[in-house]
Structures are given as C-alpha cells and as structure tokens.
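Notes from hallway chat w/ T.B., transcribed later so I don't forget. T.B. wanted the structure written out for a chain they're using in a teaching module, and asked if we could keep both sequence and structure tokens in one place. Agreed to drop them here.
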Amino acid sequence: MNERLDSLLKRHQELCELVQDPELARDTNRYREVMKEYSHLGEIAAAYEEVARLSKQFDDVKALVQDEKDPELKELAKEEIRELEGQIKQADDALKLMLVPRDPLDEKNIIMEIRAGTGGEEAALFVSDLFRMYSRFAETKNWKFEIMSSNETELGGFKEIVFSVNGKNVYENLRYESGVHRVQRVPSTEASGRIHTSAVTVAVLPEADETEIDIRTEDLRIDVMRAGGPGGQSVNTTDSAVRITHLPTGVTVHCQDEKSQIKNKAKAMRILRARIYEMEEAKAAAQRSEARRNQVGSGDRSERIRTYNFPQNRLTDHRVNLTLYKLDLVMQGDVEELFDTLKLSAREELLRATSS
C-alpha cells in the first residue's frame, strides 16, 4: 500500500508541472483527462498531508507530556493525545480507502429504471415516491435529470419510469440502488388501516457512449405506433411512439413521452445501448475473481436490498445492516448517509480483498 501511495504522490507532482504547461490546453480531450486525474490525485495528496499534519501534532504533544511538570497541564495534554489518536486513525482509514483502485464505471452517467412489482396501484405509487427521492437528491448534487420513458397510472403512480442522470460520479453514488425495494405502509385507499407490503424493482445502468457499444442497423427492428396514456387515452394523435427491438439479444425498448418520433427514437436508442452495455458488463463481472465481489450485493434486480416501513418511520438496508429512523427525510432526498455507508462498505471490502 505504501508503494502505491508513493507512486500516486509522485504522479501528482508530475501533473502539478504538466497542468502549468500552456500547450496542454490546446488539446481539449487530453486537457480534460489530465485535469480529472489531477483533481483525483489532489484529493489523495491532501488526505496524506492531513495524516502527516496530525501525526506531527501528536508527536509534539507527546513530547510536551514527557517534559511537562504541571500535573494539570500534563493531564490536558494526555487528553489531547487521546483525541489525536482517534483523528489520526480516522484520517488514515480515509486515506487507505482512497488508495483502493476505482471502478472506471464510477464516473459514468446512468439510466435508471423503476418498475412496480407486487402490490398493484400501491406499488405504482411507491415508484413515484422513489422517483421523487432520487430526483431531489440529484438536485442537491446539481446533476442533470431527464425522463426518458414513463407509464403513468390514473392515481398518479407509475407502472414504470425510465430516466437519465448526468453529472459527477453519478454511477458511484447510485449503483447500489439496483434490486428490489420493499415498502410497508397503509395505502391511502385502505379504509381499515391495514398495512400492505408492496415491492418495486430498480435497475441502474451505466450509460454507454456510442463508441463503446456497436449496434448495427440491420440488428434492429423499429416499430412506430400511436402513443397511449392512462386509461387508454391517447397522448397525441400522431404515430410518434417508438419500439426498438435488438434482434440478437431480444432486448426491447419503448418510448412515447415525446411528441416527436425522432426524439422518441433517440431516447430509445440511449436506453437500448445502456441495457446492452450492462449485459456485457455483467458477463465480464461474472468472469472476475471472487475477491471482486463486495458485501453490498451484486446489484442483481432479483435481490431484496431495502425495506421502507412508513408506520415506524424506518428504513433498513439489508446488505449493510443499516437502520435509519428518518424515513420521512429520506423520501425527501436526504439519502447522503445511506449512500455513503454503502460506498464505504464496498470500498472496505475491496480494500480487504486487495490487501490479502
């Protein structure tokens, strides 16, 4: 681990000189890549300097304890040493986690799909609630949010909704949302006050660039049709809805939200590309060693990952045994603590795997 740290700090020094070269800015793509690496290594360098600063402060206070004659001052210094020991451990642990090799997918934008499972209309309403939770979190991150496709119910829920999220480290933050989300609450339509259990399925797909996935035109079947809305009502009177089927894989995507057939086709192609990219990534992941698996789960959409209990205002993530009694705040987008715990757990597991 020390060799890796030395190597990264040396590279950071090299980049410090490189970013001052005016020639770099003339190559836009290289400039972007260098600045991204420079920013990431800068965080590691800052974390290392923080550990060094606290360690020096610890040594200074420890020397003071040895030389100090005043019992009261000596006791205060000992208390400061105990506090510094905790701070050093915390800073050192944070630095170690930074040294874990990052997944190249972490920086990707995503396409997220939320679908109602068991529970009928109540499940559809919870799809809407989850969509609102993610969108409000995205707002706090200044991420760009765009609905790609949706199928709304008469009561304001969604049988399914597909949307894209673009921004910094989107996949890193949202990748662990894939799976089955179970909700326990009293539906607004339930007169007896009985608690119902429903479920929705979430899929988080890293969005692929056109250069990463080669989709041949001859492998596609494209159908156009009139868009339909809740209760069978038509959204518009033109044949703007588009369904694209990728013949080799059987993957089918349907988009109808836009009035323009061209726009619906473009959105459908983005979703199709992301789904096929995820399939290829899943195959590659299956071939990796067991050490690459982490305790927050595989992200399989058949896996129950979380329970939302509204009567108890409780959220439980079953992968990391985390329980929060602030479900009302979570549903308003206050999910930073939850997501940080999932990321930390995954990186700690990976650190153990790479250290063994």
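Follow-up for T.B.: The chain is about 45% helix and 20% strand. Might be a good example for the class.
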